[in-house]
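Here we describe the complex-level prediction in full. Unlike the single-chain runs in Section 2.1, the two entities below were treated as one system.
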Amino acid sequence: MSATSFTYVQRNRKMVFGPGVRNTLGAEVSELNAQKVFLIIDGGAIALRKSIEDLVGNKLVSTWTDVKQHVPVELAESARSAVTNSSADLVVCVGGGSSTGLAKAIALSHRIPIIAIPTTYAGSEQTTIYGLTGDRHKQTGSDAIVLPRVSLYDAELTVDLPISVTGASAFNALAHSVESLYATGCNPITTAIALEGIRAINLSLPLVMSSPKNIEARAQLLYGAAMSGISLGDTSAGFHHKICHVLGGAFGLVHADAHSVVLPHAVAFNAPVLPFEMNQLAHALDCRQDDVAGSLWDLAKRSGVPSSLAQLGLHRENLAEVATRAAAEIRTNPRNFDAASIELLLQGAFDGVRPLATN
Amino acid sequence: MSATSFTYVQRNRKMVFGPGVRNTLGAEVSELNAQKVFLIIDGGAIALRKSIEDLVGNKLVSTWTDVKQHVPVELAESARSAVTNSSADLVVCVGGGSSTGLAKAIALSHRIPIIAIPTTYAGSEQTTIYGLTGDRHKQTGSDAIVLPRVSLYDAELTVDLPISVTGASAFNALAHSVESLYATGCNPITTAIALEGIRAINLSLPLVMSSPKNIEARAQLLYGAAMSGISLGDTSAGFHHKICHVLGGAFGLVHADAHSVVLPHAVAFNAPVLPFEMNQLAHALDCRQDDVAGSLWDLAKRSGVPSSLAQLGLHRENLAEVATRAAAEIRTNPRNFDAASIELLLQGAFDGVRPLATN
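The structure predicted for the assembly as a whole is:
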């Protein structure tokens, strides 16, 4: 059985969780024997600039604030030049996935370590995956050097994350965890970590959405996102993420907003061929085994995040094209699919109906 | 809350699970760029000598078979001299905890990596902990270099492990996982891994004990032991292990045999102050929350391992002294204790009665 034949690789990394742990940044810089710190802060976290600069202290050689989604190659090259000029030996990145992504581009070229201070739920600080976007294509790869050596998870830095970003980012993380349960590369260890992420997000997200300043709930959500990051890094994104990718790329929807809409329907589609994984999910979500997809839909509703593609501005006549494109992009999935079955799934997502229980 | 304030450190390590994975040994040696392999095989695994030597091939510089429990200092020094003489740049250890322990002593002094091929359920190949025993005292410590870089978990190498060793070794692993749920240093991640170990051992041990050649059950047990090793390495042994240590040290019982006897009673003692952990254990063991200790006792019975101290040859009149010594050794425990309360617990363990449900 596959459950007992697998390879699991762990990489050196330190994760520090707790309100206030940003204050250990100076100590972590010293522990890595770094002398010159290149600081990256994205727009969403720019209010933290002064306080983080103070924490780095006199080892700060440069602060970089020009951060864009998907790490455009030109941007990476500019930042890399600045790093070369500053002789930095460490990158500290503060913010969401775009900030981490730029730090990874630098780590890749300059072979220097990263300390990450995530302020969203992207989770990319827990993966060895990097990506750079050019005019024509996206360069992605995996390299141990881009995995941050230290990640400081300080929920106090997340209380001002807007509700809309919070919900979208958290559902992206949740989707990664859920899909990792049956993705290529999954094994009992990645599954245990993913279920930990799912449990934490399921419990904390509705609390955070109704009380964004609830530090304890924010901390649990951040923890869940970190676990989702690990499980993503060890496996790969699948069916659901490809559909969201098409929705974001070709139809101008904000990629992250689609997650809460599509996930319940993607899970409902695969549920009939995944009884074992649905049992695990039912435990993690504390729901009936035949109602996992419905439970995810309920979570979206309870959290007040989008639950229909119509609501996101898609038009019904586009569903066929989304389905065709997605079907061409998806390489592997537990259940057989074609454009027609994906279109049917998208109908439910478009209307925002609660997925039916499987039987 | 502590559940969201903690530090978790992961170290470079690769775990390969699967029947037959010993055949990747040569490739793993090459991947670590090693040229000269020092091979350690203990008595329990000596039948594998020829086949492992063949797998190492012409990079083998020496095979060491003099292995003793608790790594006596003189033995470590002899082995270290042999390593120096052979100019080895890698240690491969095959066998149980004693073999791994000697490899760690060498890694510590010579700063060379280890590849471990465990054939018992000790789990020490997943920890940075080392120990050396002198005439008067035991030297223990933690060093990243002693954590094997690669561990090959090949259940085919475990089918001939005698039933008595299997049961004792597996219950030792189980006890590590259980105690790690409330040990100093525990956190949600160590707990998730420990629960994974507990689930796997609980499901597989009775199968292995009744059908020792069942490869699938052996593989699951080996996996559970690996998870227990990780959770032990990240936390520390507590109450139960100190009691077993006293039983083994001062009263001549085989240390490992005491685990299956003591664990249910140690858990019963702590259960009233650990409702959250008992709930987690109840899920992992698939039993009622108020009957976790009883469920562990049932597992021992189902597995045919010792369940009373009387059966192990202890005398009732020794219980008071065991209790006094254990009370002096135990540093921290969730529930307050004294010699009298430990003696009461030991009475139950002596008689081998099923622990009562908590309420």
